[in-house]
Design a protein that fits this description.
The protein is mainly α. It has helices at 2-26, 33-53, 58-79, 84-103. Keywords: Membrane, Transmembrane, Transmembrane helix.
């Protein structure tokens, strides 16, 4: 029981840190590689937090995955020099893989 409480607390901590990291990186220098890399790391931290949370409610998980998807989209948008089609395709593919991993772990 104690391990489950620790995992839940760590999950909440990771999600909060990831969101703070995303917001800070977004306003650092909008549209630069540094901002995009920071947002990617914030999205990765949020995904790690979601794994530890083990949320059964799909609407909370989908809202968190939407934030992660927007972060991944922004990263690939900046890296591909604003190629929207490629960025959307890659973001949807990565979110689908993350959702598959969260659902069937």
């Amino acid at each position: 029981m104690r391990a489950n409480k620790f995992a839940f607390a760590f999950g909440i901590f990771a999600v909060v840190v990831g969101i703070i990291f995303d917001v800070f990186s977004l306003f650092l220098k909008l549209g630069t590689n540094d901002s995009a890399t920071g947002i990617l790391w914030g999205s990765i931290i949020i995904v790690v937090g979601l794994v530890f949370l083990s949320i059964d409610h799909s609407h909370i998980r989908y809202a968190s995955l939407a934030v992660v998807g927007i972060g991944i989209f922004y990263y690939f948008l900046v890296q591909t020099h604003y190629n929207y089609i490629t960025s959307i395709f890659v973001a949807v593919l990565i979110i689908a893989i993350i959702e598959f991993g969260l659902r069937y772990r």
